[in-house]
Amino acid sequence: MVKRLLALALLLASPLANALPDENQGITEFDNYRVHYSVIPSTFLEKKVAREYDLTRSRSVGLLNVAVHRTSGDDAPKPITAQIKGTFTNEARQTKELSFRRVQEGDAVYYLAQFQYRQGELLIFELEPAPYGDSTTLPVRFSRELYDDE
């Protein structure tokens, strides 16, 4: 099970996150929260993992992974459940809604969304994670260009 988590979420709160180029991942920090995000071409997923999680592998489909952690003092950040809303805008200034699916394995909680893109196109992502039980919204905005190396 841990192997599947690391393979799928090679993206965020795993040791494999360091294997991703910095431009594919990011962290935005707030007072008591940290939002982790990664964007990759879906072809970076192993075929077996894509099948297991019912994810599309295609040169025109990207994968966005978002996780929210609560931070407190010197304790290690803890993954928490949140409601994730988001959009992305392409170079033609078309804005599309992202549909997130919650995945939980052990203590890890993360949210996945797939989207269509063109190679080398600049995409602007706007996310609004809202931790459950808190009225706080954690706005995150970032841009990425995706290239399929397969």
UniProtKB/TrEMBL annotation:
Print the keywords alphabetically. Answer: Signal
- For the keyword GTP-binding, the answer is no
* Signal peptide segment: 1-19
User: Ranges for the DUF4426 domain?
Assistant: 29-149
Q: Which domain of life is it from?
A: Bacteria
The cross-references to Gene3D superfamilies, in alphabetical order and at most eight, read:
Domain of unknown function DUF4426
Q: What is this protein called?
A: DUF4426 domain-containing protein
Organism ancestry: Bacteria, Pseudomonadati, Pseudomonadota, Gammaproteobacteria, Oceanospirillales
